[in-house]
Amino acid sequence: MGFKTQSDDDDAVSEINVTPLVDVMLVLVIILLVTAPLLTQSVNVALPQTASTTPDTEKQPLQLGIDAQGGVTLNKNPIADLAALEARLQSELAGKPDLTVHVYADQAVNYGKVAEVMAAAQHAGIAKLAFVTVEQ
């Protein structure tokens, strides 16, 4: 009976064969290069002409502004304090249940002041609050 002993010639290869991986990646790059121009094509459409209309002023959101000194305005009308702001927002909300408020906060205003104004809006029952920013 012959027994086979393990020799140094039968060591396992410990390197990863990257050739199939490179092949797959090249195929994916080719697919990307072929399909990318197809995604940017547009169709020319002649849109119908209509008469101009005026925007619905009842659907306009409230503009809540906070200047650099911490002064608060609602639709460009100054508000004395947060209690007055909350009362004014509640009265505006009574007529429009889906009221949206846009917050225009100065870049230099203290974050604490913005948080106080947001809390006053939340206490007034405002559910839709959006911040307005400027693109750089």
Structure, explained:
The model has no long low-confidence stretch (mean pLDDT 83). With 136 residues, this protein is an alpha/beta fold. It has a domain of 72 residues: Nucleotidyltransferase, domain 5. A hairpin with a 2-residue loop joins strand 2 and strand 3. The radius of gyration is 32 Å and the shape is elongated. It starts with 18 loop residues before the first helix and ends in a 5-residue tail after the last strand. The chain is built from three helices and five strands, in the order αβββαβαβ.
Topology:
Layout: H1 19-39, E1 62-66, E2 72-74, E3 77-79, H2 82-95, E4 100-105, H3 111-124, E5 128-131
Provide the descriptors you would attach to this structure in a database record:
136 residues, alpha/beta, Nucleotidyltransferase, domain 5, 5-stranded mixed sheet, 3 helices, 15% strand, elongated
How many E-type strands? 5
Strand content: 15-25%
Mean pLDDT: 83
Q: Low-confidence spans: pLDDT under 50, at least 5 residues? A: none
Top CATH class of the domain at 60-131: Alpha Beta
- Global structural class: alpha/beta
Strand order of the largest sheet: 3-2-1-4-5
Oligomer: single chain
Q: How far apart are the first and last residues' alpha carbons, in Å?
A: 83 Å
Instruction: Name the shape in a single word.
Output: elongated
- Following the backbone from N to C, one meets helices and strands in this order, namely HEEEHEHE
CATH architecture assignment of the domain at 60-131: 2-Layer Sandwich
Major sheet: size, sense and barrel closure?
5 strands, mixed
What is the third-level CATH name, the topology of the domain at 60-131? Nucleotidyltransferase, domain 5
> Compute the gyration radius: what is it?
32 Å
